[in-house]
Specification:
- This protein is α+β, with helices and mostly antiparallel strands.
- It has a domain at 288-365.
- The protein has helices at residues 10-20, 31-37, 48-54, 62-70, 89-98, 100-111, 120-133, 138-146, 154-164, 187-191, 201-212, 217-224, 230-236, 276-279, 293-296, 338-355, and strands at 6-7, 41-42, 74-78, 84-88, 167-169, 184-186, 241-244, 250-253, 269-271, 306-309, 312-321, 325-332, 360-365.
- The strands form 3 sheets. The protein has a 5-stranded antiparallel β-sheet with strand order 2-4-3-5-6. Strands 9-10-11-12-13 form a 5-stranded mixed β-sheet, with helices on one face. Strands 1-7-8 form a 3-stranded mixed β-sheet.
- Strand 12 (325-332), helix 16 and strand 13 (360-365) form a beta-alpha-beta unit.
- Helix 6 packs antiparallel against helix 9 (154-164).
- The chain is globular, with a radius of gyration of 22 Å.
Length: 366
């Protein structure tokens, strides 16, 4: 049956999103299931997924995620928006074909002219051979490819291989406390399985709404980087509930998804860099004053770590660490009440214990 559109307030949308994002209370969901619930976590900063999981899961420890990566049950790969994500092995195989056209569009936009004279099929075959022979950094890969294509920019050659071969960043990259250059091999070799055929997009719409809804078509398109998703929402319309926000936008949702009362009081939370809530929808007014945008997103594309108060972003945070001490620096965007400061200190102590156990801690407000 088709559902009549219902009005929904901005505050109700905020509370619904917080519920889906596990930010009203920590969840006991297993780590791998959580990765699949969110359809992956943004991973441009190696430690970002760890903070994302810590603030959402009860008793989360870094070793839980590191073990999944080392055991090849979770992988780091470029997916939605052609950016690096940490996803389950299953979702890697499922999602990578879905976003192929997006990767090709990004390649053409950045390197199309430099690759105009290159036979991409031959380049792809040679690139796959090289990364499957042994894992390579992009720098190594570019130098090796330049032996066959000496007149083409090495960065463009590596980017083309990344586009047409599903490249996974292998450990120790992405393990908590480890460092080193990003080294790549193909998903098929690392996971010992082929990529899936094109996924059931209606099922992906349902998964997206479960974690990010209620949402507009534009929201999912912004999250994925893909266009022309409206037809799938329309096909599902009879099975979804439909809302109108205060600006008249049409939002879709699963009928049985949680939508808490607006007067519910969310706890203070610390979100890490590139948190998926900020990247999961187009309309960020649902959880922040958009005037703060330039203080959160830097000119070089870094999405800063943020604080949530009453469900809204009200500042940024960072940890400065030496061998003997870790200092949590909180930079609020407005004056805080005494209660808000106390809530951030209490949650901040837990954050420091997670991020820098075994050394002295301090919390400072700028």
């Amino acid at each position: 049956m088709a559902y009549e559109a219902q009005n929904i307030s901005s505050l109700e949308l905020n509370r619904a999103l917080l519920a889906r994002q596990m930010l009203l209370s920590r969840s006991d969901m297993p780590v791998l299931d959580t990765l699949e619930w969110f359809i992956g976590l943004q991973a441009q900063a190696p430690n970002a997924p760890y903070y994302s999981l810590w603030t959402r899961l009860e008793g989360f420890e870094q070793s839980q995620l590191s073990a999944l990566i080392s055991g090849r049950r979770a992988v780091r790969i470029a997916l939605m928006r052609s950016t690096l994500h940490l996803v389950s092995a299953s979702d890697c195989l499922l999602l990578r074909p879905w976003v192929q056209t997006l990767h090709e569009r990004a390649l053409n936009g950045s390197f199309g002219k430099r690759l105009a004279s290159v036979d991409l099929a031959s380049l792809t075959a040679e690139g796959r051979r090289l990364v499957e022979e042994q894992p390579r950094t992009f720098n190594e890969l570019g130098k090796l490819l330049a032996q066959a294509w000496p007149d083409t920019d090495q960065e463009a050659l590596s980017a083309a291989v990344r586009t047409f071969v599903p490249l996974i960043q292998i450990p120790p990259r992405g393990l908590w406390g480890e460092s080193g250059q990003a080294t790549h091999t193909s998903a098929e070799v690392w996971l010992e399985q082929p990529l899936h055929a094109q996924p059931d997009i209606e099922k992906l719409v349902r998964r997206y709404l479960a974690a990010y809804g209620p949402a507009t078509v534009k929201d999912m398109q912004a999250w994925s980087g893909l266009t022309r998703l409206k037809e799938y929402f329309e096909q599902l319309r009879p099975q979804l509930v439909v809302f109108r926000d205060e600006r008249g936008n049409e939002l879709f949702d699963l009928p049985d998804a949680p939508r808490p009362e607006a007067d519910l009081a969310p706890p203070a939370r610390y979100l890490g860099e590139f948190d998926q809530m900020l990247l999961g929808i187009a309309d960020r007014s649902r959880f922040m004053d958009t005037a703060y945008g330039k203080r959160i997103l830097t000119a070089n594309g870094i999405l800063r770590s943020t604080i949530l108060l009453n469900g809204y972003i009200e500042g940024i945070w960072s940890i400065e660490r030496s061998s003997q001490k870790a200092v949590l620096i909180i930079d609020p965007f407005r004056p805080l009440t005494k209660e808000e400061q106390e809530d951030l200190i209490a949650e901040g102590e837990k954050l420091l214990q997670f991020a820098a156990a075994g050394i002295d801690h301090e919390i400072l407000f700028n």
